[in-house]
Amino acid sequence: MGKRRAGRELLRSLSKKQKKHLREFGEEHPFYDKVFACCFMGCYCCCCLHLCFSFQSEDSDKSSAESDSETEVEQVSGYHKLLATLKTSPESESEEDESESEEAEESEAEMHSEGSQETGEGEGGEEDTNDVPEEEEGTTDTAEQMLSQEQADGTDTSCDPRHGVIEEFTDVKHESEFSLETNFMEEESGDCNADRRDSNPFKQHMDKELEEKEIEKMSTLPKASSQSQWPRLGQLIFSYTLEKHKTLKADKEFDVKQLHLHKPLESTWPKVNKQFLSAVDKPTDFSFTPLQRELFCIMNSYRDLFYPERNALTNGEEIRHAYCLHALNHVLKANAQVLSNNAKRRDRKPGTDTDDHRDQGLTRPKVLMLVPFRECALRIVHILISLLEANDKKKIDVSNKKRFKGEFGSDPEEKPPNLKRPEDYEAVFAGNIDDHFRIGVAILQKSMRLYAPFYSSDIIIASPLGIRTVIGAEGEKKRDFDFLSSIEILIIDQADIYLMQNWEHVLHLMKHINLLPLDSHGVDFSRVRMLNLNNWSKYYRQTLLFSSLQDPQINSVFNKHCFNYVGQVAIRNVPLTGSISHVVVQLPHVFRRLEADSITSVIDARFQFFTDKVLPEYRDAIMSHTLIYVPSYFDYVRLRNYFKKEDLNFTHICEYTKKAAVCRARRFFLKGEKQFLLFTERFHFYKRYTIKGIRNLIFYELPTYSHFYSEICNMLKATDNGVDATWTCTVLYSKYDAQKLAAVVGIDRTAQMLQSKKNVHLFVTGEN
Question: Which domains occur in the chain, in start order?
Answer without folding.
Answer: 200-278+285-345+367-412+422-571 (3.40.50.300), 579-765 (3.40.50.300)
